[in-house]
Amino acid sequence: MRGLAVILMALPSLALAQEAPTPRPATTAASEERPAPRPDPKTALPTAETGEKADPKPERDRQSGPAPADPAAAETDPPVTEPAGPPGPPIHATLRESDFDHSACLLALTLLGADYSEEAPVTDPEQRDCGIDRPILLRAPLPGIEIPGGALMRCDTARHLAHWLRDFVRPAAALLPGQPRLAALEPGSTYQCRATVGNDSAKLSEHAFGNAFDIAAFRFGDGTRIAVEPRQDSGDLQEAFQRAVRGTACLHFATVLGPGANAAHDSHLHLDIKQRNGGWRLCQ
Questions:
Q1: CA angle, corner 225, sides to 222 and 231, nearest 5?
Q2: pTM, full prediction
Q3: Residue 62: how many CB atoms within 10 A of its CB?
Q4: Cα–Cα distance measured from residue 161 to residue 88, given in angstroms and rounded to the nearest whole number
């Protein structure tokens, strides 16, 4: 009986030892054979082999600074224009003589015996470029040679006129029949604010600055007169005189125009002291 009791007490321990182990979660063959997913290189953490750090942001998001401007938009932007500056001085002001040059010119006229007077500056209210800053009224470029009514001009114009009359015109008149004395110059245009004639009138005439003087006729002490007009090889001394004085005028003036140059100059000699590059002269 005692041995049976011992056996009965051991039976519960044997039953517990023989219980089945706790079951594991069920898996399929496919899941057991599938390897673990590899990390995405774009999102991978730093590795010991490379030490690099992946940037999960797209390439365009990593660009620094503002986005570049659209070239097409830049091409259509309006151009930047500089503000216009103030207008330059009027032409007559650019021709104003210095004190020294003006005094020297007046002295030369005085030594030549000219009859003149200094006048107030002349301007034109409707054309800013016209005018004479230091005009003179020339009544006689040489003693005994009158300009009826006088002529307003720059001093340098008067000086060239006086030298030409002294050196060429008066000696040429002495070769005319009876050797008449040159007594007067009949003026055409003197100072006048106007455009040039004989072209498209796009530029102001030298008359507008006191640089020009027109001669319509030469008068002599014996009462004779030689008008400036077309002379078609008449062969007389009046034609020779007109040709002589016209040709020699180019030694003193930068522009000489007369009959044959154009219709506008058939009735007078136009003389002016316009300054050109290289001292070029227009003689027609």
A1: 140
A2: 0.69
A3: 8
A4: 31
